[in-house]
């Protein structure tokens, strides 16, 4: 009985067109209206020479980097006072010291202050 039901089901599917390859749809091609693309030679890019202000800022930054591990007093004696600064409780030693940001034109000096001594930690 089961074989008869399976056979009838297969016959029904076959007659209904399931499993048959669909006939390809008729396609038409239109003439191309596109024009041939032209390629342009890549343009040369020129880099401008650094301005005097940029050169000075890079020089000051290099001098500030030489102060990593030294006191902020030594930094200021070498490159001058920052344009501005801010301080917050230290993330490294909570409750002990302060982390500082000294802002110069073009770069920032990061400091750590504890027990009255402020040290240069990093320059970016």
Automatic annotation (TrEMBL):
Superkingdom of this protein's organism: Bacteria
Key word Signal present: yes
Signal peptide annotation: 1-19
Region (Disordered) residue spans: 19-60
Keyword rRNA-binding found: no
Biased composition range(s): Low complexity: 35-57
UniProt biased composition (Polar residues): 25-34
Keywords: Signal
Record-given protein name: PepSY domain-containing protein
Source species taxonomy: Bacteria, Bacillati, Bacillota, Clostridia, Eubacteriales
């Amino acid at each position: 009985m089961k074989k008869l039901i399976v056979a009838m089901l297969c016959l029904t599917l076959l007659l209904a067109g399931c499993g048959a390859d669909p006939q390809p749809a008729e396609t038409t091609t239109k003439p191309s209206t596109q024009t041939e693309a032209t390629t342009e030679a890549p343009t040369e890019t020129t880099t401008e020479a650094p301005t005097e202000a940029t050169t000075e800022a890079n020089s000051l930054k290099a001098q500030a980097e030489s102060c990593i591990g030294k006191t902020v007093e030594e930094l200021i004696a070498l490159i001058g006072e920052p344009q501005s600064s801010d301080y917050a409780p230290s993330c490294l030693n909570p409750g002990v010291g302060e982390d500082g940001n000294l802002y110069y034109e073009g770069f920032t000096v990061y400091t750590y202050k504890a027990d009255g001594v402020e040290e240069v930690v990093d320059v970016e």
